Amino acid sequence: MVDPLGVGLGLTLTVTVVILHFSQGTERPIPDDISQQVIEGRAATVRETEFPEPMNRAIGGGVSATAAAVPAGEAAVEGELDEVAVETEQDPAAIPDEEAETFEIEYLKEGETLAVAENQTILEAGEEAGWELPYACREGQCISCSGRVTDGGNSEEYLTHFTNGMLGDPELDDGYSLTCVAYPTSDLTIETGESP
Fold first, then answer.
1. Confidence check: pLDDT of 180 > 90
2. Domain ranges of the chain
3. Distance (Å, rounded) from C-alpha 175 to C-alpha 19?
4. Angstrom distances, CA of residue 174 to CA of 119, 133, 147, 167, 169
5. Is the pLDDT of residue 190 over 90?
6. Which CATH architecture best describes the domain 46-71+79-196?
7. Residues 142/60, Cβ–Cβ less than 8 Å
């Protein structure tokens, strides 16, 4: 025997669903998609670089971004641009070749030790030796070129980074380095292709 309550309830639900399906709704307009405008606006705030490698719109900008962040005609925070000038003067690449000290750098994965001058990066020295070491931006704004100093302690005990925009104190304390902007200050052993 058929339960009249079940049939009535089923018929009521079916009619309700059909009515809701064919009703027109509230006529609320769907807003335009502004995601492309937001992306273009954000991209316009990131400075362009001149190199063709990937990551040429890397977020940050290191030392040069500090100077570029002050619009023309506006005063910088006292000492801000002075710091940039001091760091620019200390660029290890500016040391004349005849005055540059040389250090023994052991490239662990490559199985060789090279004499690297203090005015040459770890990456450049490896490339001159004919190795294809990883890199992308060559400005210290990504970690594609990262390596790890295996001698223990903070990597900046063995080398100096010029325009390091990616590694913080915890990574430096673990021995990590950006080989594209890392200049040796003592003998060291490095494992290339290692990232934090």
1. yes
2. 46-71+79-196
3. 68
4. 24, 21, 11, 10, 9
5. yes
6. Roll (3.10)
7. no
Asked if 159 contacts 185 with a C-beta cutoff of 8 angstroms, the reply is yes
pLDDT tens across 42-76, in order? 777 766 655 554 544 444 444 444 444 444 444 54
Task: Quick: pLDDT tens for 93-129.
Answer: 889 999 999 999 999 999 999 999 999 999 999 999 9
* DSSP code string of 97-115: GGG--EEEEEETTTTEEEE
Q: Say what the pTM is.
A: 0.55
Q: Which residue has the tokens 């994965």?
A: 109
Q: In angstroms, rounded to a whole number, what is the distance separating the alpha carbons of residues 132 and 162?
A: 22
- Confirm if 172 and 142 have CB atoms less than 8 A apart: no
Signed CA dihedral, 8, 10, 16, 18: sign only: negative
- The amino acid that residue 114 corresponds to is L
